[in-house]
Amino acid sequence: xxxxxxxxxxxxxxxxxxxxxxxxxxxxxxxxxxxxxxxxxxxxxxxxxxxxxxxxxxxxxxxxxxxxxxxxxxxxxxxxxxxxxxxxxxxxxxxxxxxxxxxxxxxxxxxxxxxxxxxxxxxxxxxxxxxxxxxxxxxxxxxxxxxxxxxxxxxxxxxxxxxxxxxxxxxxxxxxxxxxxxxxxxxxxxxxxxxxxxxxxxxxxxxxxxxxxxxxxxxxxxxxxxxxxxxxxxxxxxxxx
Length: 241
Known about the structure:
Jelly Rolls, Arc Repressor Mutant, subunit A, 22% strand
């Protein structure tokens, strides 16, 4: 069993990995951990000596205020290092929580240190992953501050579809998005009631069908226009890094 299959798919969408770099990722020692839905994978204030990659499942990056209100700042899927930044930033300034049952790969920071010291191009590719995370944060910030609720949700769906497509988790125009309206509200900065109204509008305009966790995008170009979605920030063009 290889640690790196979804990670390799994600990285090779952006640049070519050499056979040696692929071997390094596939041979990296790791510990498999299974966590149930709702469990914190990393907690705010925690200092880690490992970074965690999602092999299967969904997680959120989130902050919880003193009164219990929560803001979700990212969704993470297979192939994502949910706390790669903890390699350098200590302690954690937010939490990472499993949305679904998750299968995780834990990689010691000592292993990452060895990779960064011996494989400069691979180091740049891992750095690129954290830069894309930051680019996604910027888009979410713009959405929260300036986009309408409908545009914000349309933008999120376009983003998730392309990210999931990169690691082979779409089928035609459909994908699994296993979140409750409460979680979605915490990501979009809305109330659950408002989220429900926006979902109804997306369905009424025939942009998507959404049954349970299954989302089908009926017309990606129309959804893209509603969300003012420009995928440049996802860096999905393979170029030398």
